[in-house]
Design brief:
By secondary structure, this protein is an alpha+beta fold. The protein contains 7 helices and 18 strands. The strands form 3 sheets. It has a 6-stranded antiparallel beta barrel.
C-alpha cells in the first residue's frame, strides 16, 4: 500500500529531490550488478553501506550515509512540513561597524520561524545591521527588524515587518541528542528554491571554545559538512528544531583530528533566555568581562593572535604574539580554561590580572574589562 501526503509546493520540490536521490541509488546499484555479471570471476556480494567507510574512505562513507539519512528523513518530515519554516536572512551592515572588517557589510544565511513572525538565526548574520530582510520561497522578500542578540550563545532574533504566512517550527530537546544520531540539516539556498537540505550524523558533543572570547557548552558537531551552515536548521527525525548552524569546522569528530563538519548551537540554550531576548534585546544576566582578545590554543598555552584596537586589552598595552600564562596567578591550560578563569572573576568591569610571556619577557598586566555590547555599534531596535 502506498501512503500519500498532501504536500505544499516547497514539499513537492523536496519530495522530487528525494526521489531523484533514490533513483540515483537504484541506477548505481543496477550498474554495479551489470559490472559484476561482466566479471564472472568476481563473487557476487551483498551491498552493505557500512564497509564502504572502511574500504572507500571516511568521507565517501559519510556522504553515502548522509544520502540514506535524507531518504529516511524526507518520508518522516513530509507530512509535518517543518522545512517550510526555514527561510533566508539578509543583512546590510555599515562600513564603520566593529564587525565589518571580519564579517563584511553584506551578510546572508538562513533562519527558522519559531513563532508568528519571529525568526531565529545565528547572531553574526545580523550583528550591527542597519537593514534586514527575510527571504521566502517564490522570490518573496519581507523586511524585518533586529529583535535581539546574545553574545554568550550566539543566537540572534528577527521580527518580520509583514506577514510570513509560515507555520512556526516546534522546538525539540537537544540535551538528549547523542552521537551517531541521524539528523537533517536545512538551509535556505536562494530565491525560489526549497533550500539546501542534506542528511548528517551527530559525530560529537563537546564544549567549543572560539577565538573571540566565546565558549559554548555541549556544542553539536555533525558530518559531513553542509555548505549553507550559517543559521541552518538542525532537525531531528520528528521534524523538531534541535540547533542552529554556526560554523564549518575541520575537527568535528574530535579535537585535532581532521574530520570536516559543522558546529550547531543547541536549541536548549535558547529556552531559558528567549523571553528576555524578546522583551529586552538580550538576556537578563550580568554581562561577562570582555577583553577584546582573539586567541588560540598553542601547546598548552593561549596565544594572542590579534587585539581589538578599540578594546580593553589594547588600552592596557597587550599586543599580538603575547602568550597568556595565568589569570590572577592561576595557570591557564587552554582557551576554554582561560575563559572560565576570566569570567569567574566577576561581571564586566572587573579588573583582570594577567601574566603574559612577551618578547620582552614575563610581564604582569591588569586589564579593566568591559561589556562587549558597549563596543558594538548597534543602531537597530534592540
Amino acid at each position: 500500500m502506498r501512503v500519500r501526503f498532501a504536500l505544499s509546493p516547497r514539499q513537492h520540490s523536496n519530495r522530487d529531490t528525494a526521489q531523484n536521490l533514490l533513483d540515483s541509488v537504484r541506477l548505481a546499484d543496477i550498474g554495479r550488478e551489470a559490472a559484476m555479471r561482466r566479471s564472472p570471476a568476481a563473487p557476487r556480494a551483498a551491498f552493505h553501506p557500512i564497509p564502504i567507510l572502511l574500504r572507500g574512505g571516511l568521507f565517501a562513507g559519510l556522504l553515502l550515509a548522509a544520502l540514506l539519512v535524507v531518504l529516511a528523513c524526507f518520508a518522516r518530515l513530509a507530512a509535518a512540513g517543518p522545512l517550510d519554516a526555514v527561510v533566508g536572512v539578509r543583512a546590510v551592515i555599515p562600513a564603520d561597524a566593529r564587525t565589518a572588517p571580519v564579517l563584511g557589510t553584506a551578510r546572508a544565511g538562513s533562519g527558522v520561524v519559531i513563532d508568528d513572525g519571529l525568526v531565529l538565526t545565528i547572531g553574526y548574520l545580523i550583528l550591527e545591521a542597519i537593514e534586514t530582510d527575510i527571504l521566502l520561497a517564490g522570490a518573496r522578500v519581507v523586511p524585518a527588524e533586529v529583535v535581539a542578540y546574545d553574545t554568550e550563545t550566539g543566537f540572534g532574533l528577527l521580527r518580520a515587518l509583514g506577514p510570513l504566512e509560515i507555520e512556526p517550527i516546534a522546538l525539540g530537546g537537544s540535551a538528549a541528542l547523542s552521537e551517531d544520531t541521524e539528523v537533517l540539516v536545512a538551509g535556505f539556498a536562494g530565491f525560489g528554491g526549497p533550500g539546501a537540505i542534506a542528511g548528517a550524523h551527530v559525530v560529537s558533543r563537546r564544549d567549543f571554545a572560539g577565538y573571540w572570547e566565546y565558549l559554548l557548552p555541549e556544542a553539536i558537531f555533525t558530518a559531513p559538512p553542509h555548505p549553507a551552515f550559517g543559521g541552518a536548521a538542525l532537525l531531528g527525525p520528528d521534524g523538531k528544531l534541535l540547533g542552529i548552524g554556526s560554523l564549518a569546522v575541520a575537527d568535528a569528530a574530535a579535537p585535532q583530528q581532521f574530520s570536516p563538519g559543522n558546529m550547531f548551537v543547541p536549541i536548549d540554550a535558547l529556552k531559558p533566555i528567549l523571553d528576555d531576548m524578546i522583551a529586552l534585546g538580550r538576556p537578563r544576566r550580568p554581562p561577562r568581562p570582555w577583553l577584546g582578545l582573539y586567541s588560540a590554543d598553542l601547546n598548552g598555552r593561549v596565544l594572542v593572535n590579534r587585539v581589538a584596537s578599540y578594546g580593553p586589552a589594547a588600552k592596557a598595552g597587550i599586543a599580538a604574539n603575547s602568550v597568556i600564562l595565568a589569570v590572577k596567578g592561576a595557570p591557564v591550560r587552554d582557551l576554554a580554561d582561560f575563559y572560565r578563569k576570566l569570567w569567574a572573576l566577576g561581571p564586566a568591569g572587573v579588573d583582570v590580572p594577567l601574566t603574559l610571556m612577551t618578547p620582552e619577557g614575563v610581564q604582569e598586566t591588569t586589564v579593566r574589562s568591559a561589556d562587549r555590547y558597549d563596543f558594538l555599534k548597534i543602531r537597530s531596535s534592540y
